[in-house]
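[job 4471] stage=fold_predict status=RUNNING
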Amino acid sequence: MDKKINKNDVIFDWDPYNSTIITEKAGTLRYRDLVPSVTYREENDEQTGHITKVVIESRDRSKMPSIEIVDDKGNILHTYIIPIRAQISVDHDERVSVGTRLVKIPRDLGRMRDITGGLPRVTELFEARAPQNPAVVSDIDGTITFKQAKRGQRGIVVTSLIVKQPLNILFLQVSMYLFKKVILFVRVIV
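[job 4471] inference complete, writing structure tokens
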């Protein structure tokens, strides 16, 4: 598993226009709730000629598009929830290794073109009103488990490492371990 890195080897390639989701485990890919024309559509890139799968918002709120990494016996090693507008880079039943890029998520650069783009948020901060999309913060340290999707949003339960007391939070996507007072997400993407 250890690989020798030589001088001038590329170990990471940063894309300023896209965020990515990469695999943490090696195995075989399995699509879950990725249905053509329901949760994703295929777009033809005119410049490259490649067909790209782009996740779209589904009318069926029970569908939560995700990619599972499974071992040779079919056991799920890891699940990645795929956000809307993400471009899927891999195919169903494809073998992947650690560090393979699964998804590209375009960054919203259109809103950040000039200084006036951030002004509505600044006024929200200085006024004494509730923000439109408030951040959700964990009150305890702990591990999280996902609840079933309800009305298009997925809930999580944060279980304390010390007391084993659950804390329910409604959200869409988050990492698998939390520290107290860490912002889980800034905006709910539905």
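[job 4471] summary: Helices lie at 119-126.
[job 4471] exit 0
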